Every structure is written in structure tokens, then in C-alpha cells.
Amino acid sequence: MKSKLATTPSKVWCYPALVVIIFASMLSASAQPPTSTPQPSPTPSLERKFLKNILRDQRAIWTWPLHLQRDDAKWLAPLGLSTAALIATDRRTADALNDNSTRLNVSHAISDLGSGYGASSIAGAFYLIGQTTHNARARETGLLGGEALIDSGIVAAVLKRATQRPRPRAGKERGDFFDGGLSFPSGHSIAAWSLATVVANEYRGNRLVDISAYGLAAAVSVVALHGAQPLPV
Predict the structure, then answer these.
(1) d(CA 184, CA 164)
(2) Are the CB atoms for 149 and 194 separated by under 8 Å?
(3) 152-168, pLDDT tens digit by residue?
(4) pLDDT score recorded for residue 67
(5) What DSSP designation does 170 have?
């Protein structure tokens, strides 16, 4: 009975949200002038170079610190300070949350949007819709979204193994680094923001798409940060 309560809301929240993002994106595509639509000619190469592009991405991601510029401090400094503040306070914040079943179920449902099957379903839906409707932009969004999810998944897996941090509410050593946990960084949050960035960039200029994509990514991050266990990350 308990597991049913935790999974049922996912069907209520996840699929309508997926439909909202895709529907808004399709509207944006239909409203754009033909010259702004990606040309079909270079698109097939994305399938052929999918794995090659992932390897290229990984090299760029892991060598990124070597290419930092002085101007990068403008966003690195506030990002670092904000991350440090959240890490320092997330255990206390988690303690302040009760185990209300409604909040837990809603948190689990929203978190599903950033799960492997949730995020990949959205990317897959874009690709299939693009293929069947000959919509080059939707097809490209699906391919780039899948690429981003694989890239972010690899990064998250490596960092989780390196930091070994249990969830802030997971037992005696909760929130401590290098203690056998796998909660930092949140895989759900990384997946949600990676896919949201791809969708927003492919359909840039459409406020509904931006709000839907980044809003859902932010919601996933909040429940991943403060959601009660056993919320998976």
C-alpha cells in the first residue's frame, strides 16, 4: 500500500508535464518563420555521430577547468558561494521537514521528471514526434536531449563516486562527504537542467517553453534537495 501511494502521483504529474513542454514547443515551431527552422540536410549526421559527439562532449567537460578565463569568475563566484551555503544548511532544512504523506508523494512525482525514464521519455518523445511529423527541430531536440542526458549522467556518476555523500536525512552520517553515499550531486537535478537547457535553446524566444522547461527543472531540484527519503537521486 505504501509503495502504491508513492508511485501513483507520478502518473498524474509526469505525463501532463511532458505533454505541456512538447505541445508548447510544437506551437513555437509552427509560429516560427521557415528560415529559423533547422535545415534537414545536417540533421541526419546527428544520429551517425551520436557516440562521437558524446566522447567529444566528455573531453570538453572534463578539460573545462583548464580553459577558464578571468571573466568566468563573474558567475563562478556566486555559484560557488550559493552551493556552499546550500550544502552547509541542507541538513538543517531537511530536519525541519515533516513526513507528511502528501508532500512526500508530490515530491516523488515531481522527482520522476528528472529520473532516467522521465527525462529520457521527454527526449524520446521529441525525437519520435520529429521523425513521424518530419519536424527537424523536434527531431534535433530529441537527439541533443538524449546526448545531454548521457553526458550529464556520466558526470553525475563520477562525482557521486568521488564525493560519497549520503542524503541529508539518511541516517546518522547524513550529509557527510566521503561516507559511502551517492546523493551528491543529484542525478535528477542534473538530468532535468540538461534537458531543459536543450529544449529552451532549441525553442528560444518562446516564453512558455522557457517557463515550462526551466520551471520544471527548478521544481525537480527543490524536491531533490529537500525531498524526504526514500526519494531517489
Answers:
(1) 7
(2) yes
(3) 999 999 999 999 888 76
(4) 86
(5) S
Q: Which residues of the chain have pLDDT under 50?
A: 1-17, 19-20, 22-24, 26-43, 228-233
Separation CA 175–CA 181 (nearest Å): 9
Residues in the chain: 233
Q: Which residues contact 150 (CB under 8 A, 6 or more apart)?
A: 54
What's the burial of 198, exposed, middle or buried (CB within 10 Å: 0-12/13-18/19+)? buried
What does the block give as the cell for 220?
525537480
First to last CA, the chain: 22
Give the H/E segment covering residue 221. Answer: helix 207-226
Q: Distance between CA atoms of 179 and 163, rounded to whole angstroms?
A: 8
pTM above threshold 0.85: no
Query: What letter represents residue 205's amino acid?
Result: G
